Structure formats: structure tokens, C-alpha cells
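Q: Joint fold for the lines below.
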Amino acid sequence: ETGVTQTPRHLVMGMTNKKSLKCEQHLGHNAMYWYKQSAKKPLELMFVYSLEERVENNSVPSRFSPECPNSSHLFLHLHTLQPEDSALYLCASSQDPPSGGYNEQFFGPGTRLTVL
Amino acid sequence: DQQVKQNSPSLSVQEGRISILNCDYTNSMFDYFLWYKKYPAEGPTFLISISSIKDKNEDGRFTVFLNKSAKHLSLHIVPSQPGDSAVYFCAAFAGSARQLTFGSGTQLTVLP
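A: Joint structure:
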């Protein structure tokens, strides 16, 4: 596998289910991200992990719970979601320079989530 | 309130002609601007970027222009090819916030 992979690619779940999205990056990067893309809306940053520590949490509801066990893996645990949470969930990774600044983010193909 | 706006949801261009995609922003703290391209069932892929200290960056058929006074950037693709048909996202990075802010995207269709 190369780049950033995400599983599953499609997920349908009921509002009472618990499920998890998985992301894996094979690029040796030190930062990983979860984004949400709803129809006709911009990508919204949900979580940022740098060196396995969460550094940003953009006021995401607690029914979304991220986990980053190591620099290559990122999970998004889902619990009691609402129909409006149906969206494309994208994972990305980057190699953040220690002094700050920007480095390109590489995206996975996304998980298309439908909440019934 | 969207800090990065792409006001044209779609654009159609004839093959061989120039495609111009536009983006406006409101936050003067952005220090990098980027364009990503997205095909269906794939994640966005990086296309080209520009630092806020420059006004132009060129890479092959792709050129990005930045007008800081107008808080406007544009992506020019010339000549356009059918394989360029995709959704193009404008994004801006603020080093202080360490996050990318995306526009809502423009669907480009290049007609053969």
C-alpha cells in the first residue's frame, strides 16, 4: 500500500450503532487529520494530531471520538450519530516542519458515511 | 462565515482554451494558498501553491495568481484538457492556526 488509505470506503449505520473509521498513512509523516465534507460545503477540519498528540479540536460533537495510537494510524470512533452527520470523511497526513510553516497534506480516498 | 469562497460552483471550457478558476478570502493572516484537485471516489490531490509574499507561481500548464490587495487568487489552466475535468478546491493556510481552510469547490468540465 502507498499513500493514505482509508477503510471502509462506504458505511451505512443506524443512529444507535457504534462504528469506527480507520486511516493509515505509509508516507512516514508526523501529522494526521480528519476532515468532514458535506454536500456542497467546504471541507471542515475536525481533528489534528501531531506527533500522536491532539493539537486541534474544532468544536466537534463528542459523538465523534478520534484515536491516534501511533504516527501511522488514525481512527474516528462514531457513536449515536445523527442523519446530518452523513458526509464524506477524509483523512490526511503531512510532515510538519519543527519550526512551523506549511507542508502539503496528502489525502486518502475518504469514507462515505450514511446515517439512517 | 466562510473565510475562503469559491463563488462559481461549476465552469465549462472547450478543450485547448484557458480555464480560470477564482477564489476569494477574507483572512489577512493566511500565508499560503493552495489548489487541490479532486476526482470522484478519490481524495483531493495537491496541484499548486503560492506563498503570500509572491504574486505568481507557474508549474507547466498551471499558474496561480495572487492579488493580496483584493484578497483574490486564481488558477489558470492552459491549454485545458479533458483529463482536467474535476472539482478544484482553493485552500488557505494560516501558520499561526496550523490549519487549512477550504473553499466549497468548483466543478470544471473540459469539453472535447
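Q: Anything notable?
A: Chain A touches chain B through 25 residues (CB under 8 Å). Chain A has no helices and eleven strands.
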